[in-house]
Write a structure and sequence with these properties.
The chain is mainly α and 222 residues long. Helices cover 80% and strands 2% of the residues. The chain has a two-stranded antiparallel ribbon.
Length: 222
């Protein structure tokens, strides 16, 4: 039998850890439980990872990368064939949040594991920084997405995107928790719609569009 590459062993252990954490939480994800799930020996585990916390830190990194990939894919899909102006931005925001929800529905166990990991990281010595960095990366990615969406639809935000990004992350957190606890897709879509309406209150049309509207109003008044 061919020797399994270390990278493949690492992959299998991380996937196994996600599954164990989604079922039993981080406390239940002992090295023995993870090895049993991955059908590997403890010696193999310690050959790939220095410790359990080393694996958990890698898991936070991997999970964050996966979440950001979902966000990026949702944004890319939403910006295709978009109209300009506030209507175009509304479409991008709705489709992006609905795309995120679709990702949660497709793999709720992974989302549950990420929540458990973040809560554990905030309390575990040596992992606190990983938990904080996870959210900072979310904020950065969302801020970039908001700036790009505004640029593509020729509108402007009335506040810096860095200040608006945490509001979007709060909405995605709400969507995730609502779905994990109720499995009610309709409720989650209402949360997404409310988040879109809130964000649209921070949109201002470019100066050119205001000028055009004002000229049209004067024309109708004469």
């Amino acid at each position: 039998m061919a020797r399994m590459p270390v990278a493949k062993r690492r992959e299998l252990l991380l996937e196994a850890a996600f599954r164990v954490i989604s079922r039993h939480g981080v406390d239940g994800a002992t090295t023995r439980a993870i090895c049993a799930e991955a059908q590997m020996t403890l010696s193999t585990f310690h050959y790939v990872f220095d410790s359990r916390d080393d694996l958990l830190a890698a898991l936070v990194q991997r999970g964050t990368d996966s979440e950001l990939a979902v966000i990026a894919a949702s944004l890319t899909d939403a910006t295709a064939d978009r109209p300009s102006g506030a209507d175009g931005l509304r479409n991008i925001l709705r489709e992006s949040l609905f795309g995120y929800l679709d990702g949660v529905i497709a793999d709720p166990e992974r989302e549950q594991a990420m929540i458990s990991l973040n809560q554990y990281a905030r309390q575990a010595k040596g992992l606190t920084q990983s938990g904080g960095e996870m959210y900072l990366r979310y904020y950065e990615a969302i801020a970039y997405g908001l700036a790009l969406a505004a640029q593509m639809t020729a509108v402007e935000w009335d506040e810096p995107v860095d200040d608006l990004a945490p509001l979007v992350v709060a909405a995605t957190d709400g969507i995730t928790l609502a779905y994990l606890n109720t499995r009610d897709e309709k409720v989650c879509r209402r949360i997404a719609e409310a988040a879109v309406l809130m964000l649209l209150t921070h949109v201002r049309e470019p100066l050119g569009s205001h000028t055009t509207t004002h000229r049209d109003d004067n024309t109708r008044g004469t």
